[in-house]
């Protein structure tokens, strides 16, 4: 086995690849957070809960209605996205004139409600979700055995992330969105319905979280605390990347997943905290974040 | 004006003192001590959010680490009660100094996310190191005697100790808020660039307020661990951080008595809802939403607004 500085390259690469899968989820979730933050100026604390809801809706569709993984991948983001738009219209939209902290507190409350309700109905032990037929099996890569489903997760989230970036950077609706992020009052004066744009944006961000939830369902057991476990790490990812740049949050998500994977090999005890430690270092050296603009 | 209390506040204070004195005759003292510990914790949190405008979303780290520190020195070193509680406060302050230095580099929502992430780091630390006892926590912490003389074995004896600690912390927060230092904090909350332009070193003020708050949170945690004889991971979790936010928001951000009233309501709710499992979480979430949407001033703030006095 090839080794560098006494470390076996094989297992290290294997952990790196596994880390990349976590990174795929970090990227999807931090991308959604960044899109929402850009326009709404709130930190969506309910993001993790909506990711969890996405996994649960997929599970319910499969077990009660017989709707499988592939339709769910489209259907669940739409359903949960609509639910998100409802939340935005009824609750969040009433808070834009107030201190941003209230948006955080509101969405934190919503996260508690969602998590508590799911725990009441489904218990906290978690439920299995079968990997779809076409993505079963694994490939031998030499240094590790790579389940096909995990390759799919990385590829699909990469495509979705880049797709989102292209929509925001290269299309006219994306241009409107970016303009509204810069100056909502002026964009409204040009005749754009900004409140509707805000609602759609929140729905879009939430749909990304739900999409991540469906992707996560076959890999992790579907359980009520899956959202709160990941969201705090994603917050750290967002602080490291800075929320100013869409591409930045995608890169930071995948990159930190990789770093976490390598840490799992080099210093297993540290893998739970490495992202937080990096956050501290970034804050000390570059407080605005790697891709952030100085305030 | 008595010690910075207005007439209405002095009246409310008198009511609170009478309740603290009379309550153990009608209610279970251990429950009351829990309320007082959480009320002190919420007062510490309120010092930041209510008077400096900083939302620390990881305050359980200081509370929980304070609890661990007090439990450890009381059990392993056999220190007396007041020294154990002091150890909790010093731990809270030390951790607050480190985390505060990092967190105050960003403002607003980022500050909240950073404090939350740092607290999660503290949580992972607690699961890894030996002295916390991992999942078991530190159990069978002795109720050490105060000054090594006054026995705390009796529930009522330790109740008075907790009441004294709570009142000391309560008056300290009040004193800080009404000092010239506290006035600068409020100026920073209202308009930070203006405070800077007036020549105040804003970051220093924020950091001092942060450390004071975390020290008091550590004292609250340490006191709780002596009362219950146990320090566990549950006091370090993000849920515990969320609970102190809820307590303060429900009682009234930036009011003197809000955190105390909030602690009474939240702990009572938990006591009655605990047989229903996750409904506690759901209820807490509903209260959050209701507070933010319907009464942002909280219970005490709304009462004060009705009576046209600051409470």
Quick gist of this model?
The complex is a heterodimer of chains A (295) and B (311). Chain A is 71% helix and 3% strand.
Any overview of this molecule?
The complex is a heterodimer of chains A (about 300) and B (about 300). Chain A has about 300 residues and is mainly α. Chain A has one domain (about 15-120, about 150-285). Chain A has 11 helices and 4 strands; from the N terminus they run ββααααββααααααα. Chain A has helices at about 10-40, 45-65, 70-90, 100-120, 150-170, 170-180, 185-190, 195-215, 225-240, 245-265, 275-285, and strands at about 5, 5-10, 140, 145. In chain A, the strands form 2 sheets. A two-stranded antiparallel sheet of chain A has the order 1-2. A two-stranded antiparallel ribbon of chain A has the order 3-4. In chain A, a hairpin with a 2-residue loop joins strand 1 and strand 2 (about 5-10). In chain A, helix 1 (about 10-40) runs parallel beside helix 5 and helix 1 runs antiparallel to helix 10. Chain B has about 300 residues and is an all-alpha fold. Chain B has a domain at about 25-235. In chain B, about 75% of the residues lie in helices and about 0% in strands. Chain B has 13 helices and no strands. The two termini of chain B are about 15 Å apart. The model of chain B has no long low-confidence stretch (mean pLDDT about 90). At the A-B interface, helix 4, helix 9 and helix 11 of A face helix 5, helix 10 and helix 12 of B.
First and last CA, distance of chain B: 13 Å
Q: What's the β-strand tally of chain B? A: 0
Specify the number of helices of chain A: 11
Helix content of chain A: over 70%
Distance between the termini of chain A: 49 Å
Look at the structure and give the mean pLDDT of chain B: 92
Q: Which series of helices and strands of chain A comes N to C?
A: EEHHHHEEHHHHHHH
- Given helix and strand content, the structural type of chain B is mainly alpha
Oligomer: heterodimer
Largest beta-sheet details of chain A: 2 strands, antiparallel
Principal-axes shape call of chain B: globular
Radius of gyration of chain B: 19 Å
What is the string of SSEs of chain B from the N terminus onward?
HHHHHHHHHHHHH
Number of helices of chain B: 13
Poorly predicted residue ranges of chain A: none
Beta-strand portion of chain A reads: under 5%
């Amino acid at each position: 086995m090839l080794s560098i500085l006494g470390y076996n390259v094989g297992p290290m690469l294997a952990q790196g690849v596994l880390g990349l899968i976590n990174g795929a989820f970090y990227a999807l979730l931090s991308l959604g957070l960044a899109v929402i933050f850009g326009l709404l100026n709130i930190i969506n604390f309910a993001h993790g809960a909506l990711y969890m809801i996405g996994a649960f809706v997929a599970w319910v569709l499969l077990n009660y209605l017989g709707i499988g993984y592939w339709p769910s991948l489209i259907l669940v983001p739409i359903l949960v996205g609509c639910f998100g738009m409802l939340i935005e219209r009824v609750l969040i939209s009433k808070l834009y004139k107030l201190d941003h902290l209230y948006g955080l507190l509101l969405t934190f409350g919503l996260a508690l409600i969602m998590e508590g309700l799911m725990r009441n109905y489904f218990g906290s032990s978690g439920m299995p979700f079968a990997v779809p037929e076409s993505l079963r099996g694994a490939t031998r890569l030499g240094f590790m055995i790579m389940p096909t489903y995990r390759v799919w997760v990385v590829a699909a989230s990469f495509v979705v992330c880049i797709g989102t970036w292209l929509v925001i950077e290269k299309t006219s609706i994306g241009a409107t969105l970016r303009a509204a992020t810069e100056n909502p009052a002026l964009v409204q004066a040009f005749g754009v319905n900004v409140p509707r744009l805000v609602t759609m944006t929140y729905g879009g961000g939430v749909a990304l979280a739900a999409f991540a939830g469906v992707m996560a369902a076959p890999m992790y057991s579907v359980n009520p605390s899956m959202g709160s476990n990941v969201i705090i790490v994603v917050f750290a990812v967002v602080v490291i990347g800075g929320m100013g740049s869409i591409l930045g949050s995608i890169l930071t998500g995948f990159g930190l997943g990789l770093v976490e994977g390598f840490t799992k090999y080099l210093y297993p005890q540290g893998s739970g905290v490495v992202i937080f430690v990096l956050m501290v270092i970034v804050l000390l050296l570059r407080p605005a974040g790697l891709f952030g603009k100085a305030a | 004006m008595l010690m910075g209390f207005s007439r209405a506040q002095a009246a409310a204070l008198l009511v609170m003192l009478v309740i603290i004195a009379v309550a153990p005759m009608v209610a279970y003292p251990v429950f009351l001590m829990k309320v007082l510990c959480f009320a002190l914790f919420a007062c510490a949190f309120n010092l930041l959010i209510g008077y400096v405008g900083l939302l620390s979303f990881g305050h359980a780290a200081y509370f929980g680490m304070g609890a661990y520190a007090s439990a450890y020195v009381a059990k392993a070193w056999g220190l007396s009660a007041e020294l154990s509680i002091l150890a909790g406060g010093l731990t809270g302050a030390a951790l607050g100094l480190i985390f505060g230095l990092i967190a105050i580099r960003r403002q607003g929502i980022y500050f909240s996310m950073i404090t939350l992430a740092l607290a999660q780091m503290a949580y992972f630390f607690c699961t890894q190191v030996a002295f916390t006892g991992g999942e078991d926590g530190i159990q069978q912490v002795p109720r050490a005697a105060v000054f090594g003389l006054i026995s705390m074995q009796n529930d009522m004896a330790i109740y008075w100790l907790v009441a004294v600690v709570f009142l000391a912390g309560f008056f300290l927060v009040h004193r800080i808020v009404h000092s010239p230092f506290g006035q600068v904090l409020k100026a920073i909350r209202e308009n930070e660039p203006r405070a800077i332009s007036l020549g105040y070193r804003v970051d220093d003020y924020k950091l001092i307020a942060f450390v004071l708050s975390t020290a008091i949170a550590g004292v609250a945690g340490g006191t709780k661990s002596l009362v219950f004889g146990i320090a566990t991971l549950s006091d370090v979790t993000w849920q515990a951080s969320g609970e102190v936010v809820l307590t303060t928001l429900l009682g009234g951000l930036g009011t003197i008595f809000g955190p105390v009233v909030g602690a009474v309501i939240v702990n009572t709710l938990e006591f009655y809802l605990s047989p229903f499992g996750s409904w506690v979480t759901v209820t807490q979430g509903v209260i959050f939403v209701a507070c933010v949407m319907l009464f942002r001033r909280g219970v005490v703030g709304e009462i004060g607004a009705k009576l046209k006095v600051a409470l």
